[in-house]
Write a structure and sequence with these properties.
Elements: E1 35-37, E2 61-63, E3 69-74, E4 81-85, H1 91-100, E5 110-114, E6 117-118, E7 136-141, H2 146-160, H3 166-170, H4 180-184, E8 196-197, E9 200-201, E10 237-242, H5 250-253, E11 257-265, E12 270-276, E13 279-282, H6 304-311, H7 313-328, H8 331-334, E14 345-346, H9 355-362, H10 379-388, H11 394-423, E15 440-443, E16 446-450, H12 463-484, E17 489-490, E18 494-499, E19 502-508, H13 518-521, E20 522-524, H14 537-550, E21 555-558, E22 564-567, E23 574-577, E24 583-586, H15 608-612, H16 628-658, E25 670-671, E26 674-675, H17 686-706, H18 713-726, H19 754-775, H20 783-800, H21 807-819, H22 841-844, H23 861-876, H24 885-892, H25 896-907, E27 909-912, E28 931-934, E29 937-940, H26 946-960, H27 964-982, H28 987-1002, H29 1006-1023, H30 1029-1044, H31 1048-1065, H32 1071-1086, H33 1090-1108, H34 1113-1128, H35 1132-1150, H36 1155-1184, H37 1200-1210, H38 1220-1244, E30 1261-1262, E31 1265-1266
Parallel strand pairs: 3-7, 14-27, 17-24
Antiparallel strand pairs: 1-2, 3-4, 5-6, 5-7, 8-9, 10-11, 11-12, 12-13, 15-16, 16-19, 18-19, 18-29, 20-23, 21-22, 23-24, 25-26, 27-28, 30-31
């Protein structure tokens, strides 16, 4: 399946991002098209869930891995070498490997030839005749064109900058930071192992940095980005830039001149270089004198590097050293990420000359666009064409998903760049005569609009406030319709960018839409929120396919002529047929049902639970809707209810038949339609009963659905009653759907559907109540989040009044008012000499804000905090009593550094990396020099790799059932497929690697665990950010595997890093800190640093007691860990005291006969004996002095194995020997869960949209399954 023409834009040679530049031998696409399903699954619109619970043969996948083979490469000037390739690779990828290898990286313009025949770049290796094991491929230098010469110069510049982190700090070219190697001192080979000296273990330095000790108050910022020694750049050249003599005049073009470069070597030699069709040579031009004739000698070389090697010894030495270092780095430290990650801090950087950067900045095109046939890219065509690629089998789906993902990440980058250009005033509006807020822009085939309410479109919904939230709601709609992926239904490429206080929506353009009036184009939906409404049979047919997965109810509404119109979406969802004949839907801002808690409707009573908590509350806009995750959770909750009600009724029928009502108590009692007494289910003996009941219901529901008339009326009635009780729209099967138009202002419904409306309203009210009573109690939102979000809202409007020249002054002033203890910071207005004396009337209008340009300067801390409190009240209905930052920090126990990080991330501010003194009352914390940059905050669609995701889920399911090996294979398979679709870097690949590492560890393969977890950490740093909560967890796992590999000092370094990040991001007071401190304490115990160890373990004990209550099992375990250290110190009294506390908890929680209680009681006996022995010895010494007969006491340092065992317990990796009875219970429990899950699946039949579900690390789980919490051991 070589790519069709439409794919050519993403496969242009310059575009290395598609394949991620992979180092030699690391074929990222191993076995690209090789997985054929044993039987073609029948896929309903290609999004049928392949159920991991099915028996294995259903989804047996034969992996016909086409085995790789080796070819020999002959390149000019170096020894021939062998290269491992796979038949699915394209020739293109061998090019990429050669451009990355240390000895061939300086070549870009070459062809690969076999027996004199040039290989086609886009051909797969398996299609090339005669290419086999041992074939010889020659690298042949080809003549340059202007395009090839530019690619060459750009590539050389990239090689020169390959260790320089400035692109990552500046947030360009999908570079991002990673610091893992600083803490592992390079690769995780043998570093950090304790060397054995004789029998004594050599001591390692374990002292943690002062600022991370429990109870410390310092929160240094500089430690966030430690200086990497590789960054001291090896200078190869002083200057490499385009010459002012470009482009070559006509007669020189006819001599083959393509362009001119100007270079200053480190030895200070100034040279002019011609790039010609034959290569690069020195010419005789100087800065002021044009003489294009070759110099003597001209050093003509095919590669710029070969030329420079000859004229500059320093270049030769440093360039080769630089490439050595470059290839030693872990590939994950340098591969580009799919989407740009921005850093909120950066060190002071030198601004060096850089020809490519300069050239990029002044061309309106993106990177390589000028090299793509047809100039700018037609984004809409690309986005839609990739969706139309075939998807009948796995290879096709992989190719399609890879193309979709690639176009999306390119589109996101282009849209972001365009949005910034629009706000910075560098793009001409298409309606320049209108008021600034109403202007719209087109740049690079993307349409840009600003988040203001133009023409009172949102008047009834909250004006500008509604116009600001509509784009993100719309994006969520696009995301969801894309995920359902119905053939023939198209959405627009959509990206929402927040930048400098403005919200910009970027969309791909429907062909023909700009030439006609909107009224003519819309053939489905409404352009005036439900007054005039039209429908269209083709749209109804397409949208009907989405209605089940999206849980949208088909319904009728009335238009202004009182005619009934049928819709299968909310009224403002519009259907437009483009000039390309495709059916587009847009304005998906109300795909999800409204959240009635924030939408008071006259005459509507809310459920009791809502009223009790003061809902519904008035909100500033009427577009609040429920998140998709909530809708899914609500439906799942209802489904369990449905199953239980039906099972209960069936059992009652059975019981009344047998006249034996004893069975009833075992079931769940149904009081007014809710399920009570859930506990009885876990009592053994009754589980089978319940499972049998659920089985019956499932079977019954299936037979009724197939409607073959064999079902007796009584059973039919059971299903009917259960359907009615849970609000299903069908009375023969479970099917819950929402009507998105129910409470829309201005939408009217026909009389005939009055009853249906009532049911729909009730369902929405139930969902609102479910949100309050079931979902929210499980969340913990921090006060700091409320404060920073309120501050963000204020900052947004504040920034709109600031012109470009005042940006850094305005931002530093805002941060001073927000975070500094200094009471009256003064804003510095831009220096007077720069402000023109004549106020130009015309210029004033250019500013998008209508505020006075200097109003921002008058803000005071008192005023800002007053506004933050009123914003928290108005928006979140949260009562904050803080007049200034110090009061807030004290009352709410907040850290200023954490608030600084939060506000910076939320608004895109980048500040200088240095220590800030927030508490100085005599001078402000920030100056304008501290504000380095302001980045966009970008929201976009994340296309999914569906097949990979199914494999991943099946793997997880297998692991939970205890089939570790099968699980491991499935997850490895998933990893392959993820790599295939996303390239090497992606959040989901990160989750995959983490799980693999955990499995390797459980199965005893520690070094493999280490290697996979190292990749997971690097990827998390690069894709999510260096201090993202996920990254902190990845560091903890890596530390555990390092410890198991006896790399103790590395393990400690990683744990200290994790604790530092945790302190910066959350502070000391966080439940996860207990787990981290237990880990640190245990490792320190293992290396006999007892006093240090106690500081961490006792802190963990305090945090656990605070968050889990002093009677919890976590606290018992904490007491035991502390006791063990006291035992090692021979302080038996303290040890006994702690172990007794633990014993009491175990006894009360688990009973006398539980293993944990017995273990604890044994340990108490042992401690008592030790204490008595010690006392005896002391008495003996007192009595007989120096000639006392002393029994040697056993003071043992803990064995590494015992420390590792405790580490496994606290990190939830348990290898627990279960008693036979436990195993039985467990099996039944697992079975019951699976049946419920399967049942839910069958009812849903749709893609699980939510992100890779994250196993809770703190819950003890055993390889065979998750233990139900009642029996959990820690």
């Amino acid at each position: 399946h070589s790519p069709s023409l439409s794919l050519s834009p993403y496969l242009c040679p310059a575009d290395s991002a598609l394949f991620g530049e992979h180092p030699s031998g690391m074929a990222l696409m191993n076995g690209d098209g090789s997985y054929e399903h044993l039987k073609e699954e029948t896929r309903q619109n290609g999004h049928e869930e392949v159920d991991p619970g099915d028996d294995a043969n259903d989804q047996e996948v034969i992996v016909i891995q086409d085995t790789g083979f080796t070819v020999k490469i002959y390149a000019p000037g170096i020894e021939p070498f062998s290269l491992q390739v796979s038949p699915q690779e394209m020739v293109q990828e061998i090019h990429q490997v050669l451009m990355d290898r240390e000895d061939t990286c300086h070549r870009t313009c070459f062809s690969l030839q076999q027996d004199g025949n040039v290989l086609d770049n886009f051909a797969e290796l398996k299609t090339i005749e005669g290419l086999q094991e041992g074939s010889v491929l020659k690298v042949v230098e080809e003549p340059y064109t202007v395009r090839e010469a530019r690619i060459h110069v750009r590539h050389i510049r990239d090689l020169l900058k390959s260790l320089d982190p400035s692109d990552a700090f500046n947030g360009v070219d999908c570079n991002s930071l990673s610091f893992l190697s600083v803490f592992t001192e390079g690769d995780l080979g043998d570093s950090g192992k304790r060397k054995k000296k004789g029998t004594e273990m050599e001591q390692i330095d374990c002292t943690p940095p002062e600022h991370i000790l429990p109870g410390g108050k310092e929160r240094p910022l500089c430690a966030l980005q430690p200086q990497n020694r590789d960054w001291k750049p090896l200078q190869c050249l002083k200057v490499l830039t385009m010459s002012g003599w470009n482009p070559p005049p006509g007669n020189r073009k006819m001599h083959g001149d393509l362009m001119y470069l100007y270079i200053i070597t480190v030895e200070d030699r100034h040279v002019s270089i011609t790039a010609s069709t034959r290569g690069f040579y020195l010419n005789q031009s100087t800065a002021y004198n044009f003489n294009p004739k070759p110099a003597n000698p001209s050093f003509l070389s095919h590669s710029l590097v070969e030329l420079l090697n000859q004229i500059s010894p320093t270049f030769k030495r440093n360039f080769s050293a630089l490439q050595k270092k470059r290839v030693q780095r872990h590939p994950f430290e340098r591969i580009a990420t799919p989407f740009q990650v921005y850093s909120w801090t950066a060190p002071q950087a030198e601004h060096a000359m850089d020809c490519v950067r300069a050239e990029d900045a002044y061309t309106s095109r993106l990177g390589y666009e000028e090299h793509i046939p047809g100039q700018t890219r037609d984004w809409n065509e690309e986005l839609q064409t990739t969706r139309e690629l075939p998807r009948k089998n796995l290879p096709e789906r992989l190719l399609r998903e890879r193309a979709i993902f690639k176009v999306h990440s390119d589109f996101t980058a282009a849209a972001t760049r365009g949005a910034m250009a629009v706000i910075d005033g560098n793009v001409m509006a298409i309606n320049p005569s209108e008021e600034t807020k109403m202007q719209m822009f087109i740049w690079n085939n993307i349409f840009f609009s600003l988040g203001f309410d133009v023409r009172d479109h949102y008047k009834d919904f909250g004006g500008d406030v509604a116009a600001y939230v509509a784009p993100t709601n719309d994006l969520n709609g696009v995301r969801t319709y894309n995920a359902v992926d119905v053939e023939g239904l198209y959405t627009l490429g959509t990206v929402v960018v927040d930048y400098r206080g403005y919200r910009v929506t970027a969309q791909s353009i429907i062909p023909g839409i700009l030439e006609r009036e909107q009224e003519q184009s819309v053939i489905y939906g409404s352009i005036d929120f439900g007054k005039t409404i039209v429908s269209h049979p083709k749209y109804l047919e397409l949208l009907e396919k989405t209605s089940r997965p999206l849980k949208i109810q088909k319904h009728k509404v009335l238009n202004d002529k009182n005619e009934e119109v049928e819709l299968c979406s909310s009224v403002e969802c519009k259907g437009i047929i483009g000039n390309d004949g495709r059916h587009y839907i847009l304005d998906l801002l109300r795909t999800f049902p409204p959240d009635l808690n924030f939408l008071p409707v006259e005459g509507e009573e809310m459920p009791e639970e809502c009223k009790k908590m003061g809902f519904p509350k008035q909100h500033r806009h009427k577009l609040c809707c429920l998140r998709q995750e909530l809708v899914d959770a609500f439906v799942e909750h209802r489904y369990l209810l449905f199953m239980k009600l039906a099972a209960l009724q069936l059992m009652q029928q059975k019981a009344s038949k047998q006249e034996n009502l004893g069975v009833l108590e075992n079931g769940a009692s149904a009081e007014n339609g809710t399920v009570g007494s859930e506990k009885s289910e876990s009592d053994d003996g009754k589980i089978e009963e319940n499972v049998a009941g659920l089985d019956q219901v499932k079977e019954l529901a299936e037979t009724i659905a197939s409607d073959d008339g064999t079902v007796d009326p009584k059973s039919r009635e059971v299903i009917q009653n259960a359907c009615k009780a849970v609000g299903s729209i069908s009375d023969t099967s479970f099917d819950i759907r929402f009507n998105p138009d129910i409470f829309s202002p201005g939408v009217r419904f026909p009389e005939s559907s009055k009853e249906e409306m009532q049911d729909q309203k009730q369902l929405l009210k139930d969902a609102a109540a479910f949100l309050l009573s079931c979902q929210i109690p499980g969340l913990k939102i921090g006060i700091s989040e409320l404060i920073t979000r309120s501050a963000k809202h204020i900052f947004k409007t504040y920034l709109q009044g600031v012109e470009l020249s005042g940006l850094s002054a305005a931002i530093s002033h805002f941060l001073n008012c927000f975070l500094s203890s200094f009471l009256n910071p003064v804003a510095h207005l831009p220096a007077d000499e720069l402000v023109s004396k004549k106020k130009n009337k015309k210029r004033k209008n250019r500013n998008l804000g209508n505020a006075d340009n200097t109003a921002w300067a008058s803000m005071t801390p008192q005023e800002l905090w007053k506004n933050i409190c009123s914003e928290a009240k108005n928006y979140f209905d949260f009562h904050l009593e803080c007049e200034n930052i110090d009061q807030a920090a004290e009352v709410c126990n907040l850290q200023k550094i954490t608030l600084l990080r939060e506000i910076s991330l939320k608004t895109g501010i980048q500040i200088l990396l240095k220590e800030y003194n927030f508490d100085n009352r005599h001078k402000p914390t920030f100056t304008e020099e501290d504000i380095l940059n302001i980045f966009p905050v970008v929201k976009h669609v994340n296309p999914k790799a569906s097949d990979a995701f199914h494999f991943f889920q099946s793997g997880q399911a297998k692991v939970q059932q205890g089939f570790l090996k099968e699980g491991c294979e499935l997850i490895n398979e998933a990893l392959n497929l993820f790599n295939n679709v996303y390239g090497a870097m992606h959040v989901e690949i990160c989750a995959c690697l983490r799980l693999l590492a955990r499995l390797n560890y459980i199965m005893g393969d520690y070094s493999e665990a280490l290697s996979n977890q190292q990749k997971a950490v690097l990827m998390s740093e690069r894709v999510l950010g260096i201090e993202h909560p996920n990254t902190i967890q990845e560091y903890m796992h890596l530390a555990l595997y390092c410890f198991a590999n006896s790399q103790l000092s590395t393990a400690l370094n990683l744990l200290y890093r994790a604790r530092y990040l945790m302190l910066l991001v959350f502070g000391e007071d966080h439940p996860e800190m207990a787990l981290l401190d237990n880990n640190i304490g245990l490792v320190l115990h293992g290396v006999m640093e007892y006093d240090l160890s106690l500081r961490f373990l006792e802190n963990a004990l305090a945090i656990n007691s605070k968050y889990h209550g002093s009677k919890s099992l976590k606290v018992a375990l904490s007491h035991h860990l502390v006791a063990r250290v006291y035992e090692s110190k021979a302080e038996f009294r303290s040890a006994l005291q702690h172990e007794k506390e633990g014993y009491t908890i175990y006894k009360n929680q688990l009973g006398e006969h539980h293993e944990k209680t017995k273990e604890s009681s044994e340990y108490l006996k042992y401690l008592t004996q030790q204490a008595v022995a010690l006392q005896r010895t002391m008495n003996e010494i007192y009595k007989n002095g120096s000639n006392a007969n002393i029994m040697p006491l056993k003071f043992t340092a803990p064995s590494m194995a015992s420390v590792l065992e405790q580490l496994n317990i606290i990190n939830g990796i348990l290898f627990i020997p279960l008693s036979q009875k436990d195993l039985e219970n467990l099996k039944a429990e697992v079975q019951r869960r699976q049946q419920l899950q399967e049942a839910v699946k069958n009812s849903e039949q749709l893609e699980a949209e939510d992100a890779v579900s994250e196993e809770r690390e703190a819950e003890p789980s055993i390889p065979s399954a998750e233990v139900p919490p009642a029996q959990s051991s820690a």
